[in-house]
């Protein structure tokens, strides 16, 4: 469902109106297994002492306040914004890719990834490639493919086309498989991120202050894209819809990549998001204080 000007809203006390088209489709069927499981889990949440959130208060202050002051529901547990979570320090991988990035100018590369569970049609993959090429910007593209899990065995050249690989070998790199994404987002040459807006990706971009071109594909990703845009971290092209709703042409994609990479006002806003994310995790910062509150709460429960 593409968001339109007359898209009806769902009103939730204390929260901004939520467009109906942003609600995951399974929620409209009360008998869908996903919906019944989530409803059961939600009832269990009322028994919790608290809920830890991978977010920092500055990123969505109004929502967190509404949850905690009883505006949404009076009997919700406390919500603790303790993010963005620090990545576990693994041995650095993808050395050849980092070397490639080292050779590029600051903020000159667009990083493209739609996560490990998102698929695209072959036609959309080809048009995404055309858009990256037409943008003229350097790109690093982590490609999932159009099949899920075990059947996803096609190589890069099969998916994007032999001619694309040859034409763009001086402009960008395309790779398959899982990567340590924060390695790339933390690199000084990366100046933008085309993302499906899975929440982990949103927080990783926020932590590094990297502007995002939001292209939600499924689940809660439209909601995430709206939060991201409101915080100043990126752009959301609403009429692209969710994955598969329509074929977004290469020219459209290229134009938006150019807009993202050349928007200095947006870059400054994203940099501010990164600064606030880092401050939140410092000693005495908002997330640090929230974590101390959790420890205090758990300690007091143990002593009862």
TrEMBL record:
Pfam families: UDPGT. Gene3D superfamilies: Glycogen Phosphorylase B. Keywords: Glycosyltransferase, Transferase. InterPro entries: UDP-glycosyltransf_plant, UDP_glucos_trans. It comes from the Eukaryota. The keyword Acetylation does not apply. GO terms for molecular function: UDP-glucosyltransferase activity. GO terms for biological process: glycoside biosynthetic process. Coiled coil: none annotated. PANTHER family: GLYCOSYLTRANSFERASE, UDP-GLYCOSYLTRANSFERASE 708D1-LIKE. Belongs to the UDP-glycosyltransferase family. This is UDP-glycosyltransferases domain-containing protein. The lineage of its organism: Eukaryota, Viridiplantae, Streptophyta, Embryophyta, Tracheophyta.
């Amino acid at each position: 469902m593409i968001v339109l000007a007359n898209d009806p809203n769902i009103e939730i006390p204390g929260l901004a109106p939520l467009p109906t088209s942003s609600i995951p489709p399974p929620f409209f069927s009360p008998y869908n297994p996903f919906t019944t499981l989530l409803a059961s889990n939600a009832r269990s949440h009322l028994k919790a002492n608290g809920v830890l959130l991978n977010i920092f208060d500055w990123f969505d202050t109004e929502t967190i306040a509404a949850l905690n002051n009883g505006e949404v529901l009076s009997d919700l547990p406390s919500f603790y914004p303790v993010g963005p979570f620090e990545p576990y320090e693994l041995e650095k991988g993808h050395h050849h890719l980092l070397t490639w990035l080292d050779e590029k100018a600051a903020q000159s590369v667009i990083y493209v990834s739609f996560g490990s569970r998102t698929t695209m049609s072959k036609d959309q993959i080809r048009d995404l490639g055309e858009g990256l090429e037409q943008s003229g910007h350097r790109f690093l593209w982590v490609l999932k493919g159009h099949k899920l899990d075990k059947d996803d065995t096609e190589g890069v050249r099969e998916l994007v086309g032999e001619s694309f690989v040859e034409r763009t070998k001086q402009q960008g790199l395309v790779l398959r498989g899982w990567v340590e994404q924060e390695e790339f987002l933390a690199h000084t040459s990366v100046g933008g991120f085309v993302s499906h807006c899975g929440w982990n990706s949103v927080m990783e971009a926020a932590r590094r202050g990297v502007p995002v071109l939001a292209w939600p594909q499924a689940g809660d990703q439209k909601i995430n894209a709206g939060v991201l845009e409101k915080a100043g971290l990126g752009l959301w092209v609403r009429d692209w819809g969710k994955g598969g709703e329509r074929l977004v042409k290469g020219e459209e994609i290229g134009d938006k990549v150019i807009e993202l990479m050349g928007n200095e006002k947006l870059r400054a806003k994203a940099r501010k998001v990164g600064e606030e994310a880092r401050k939140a995790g410092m000693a005495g910062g908002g997330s640090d204080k929230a974590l101390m509150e959790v420890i205090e709460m758990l300690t007091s429960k143990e002593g009862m």
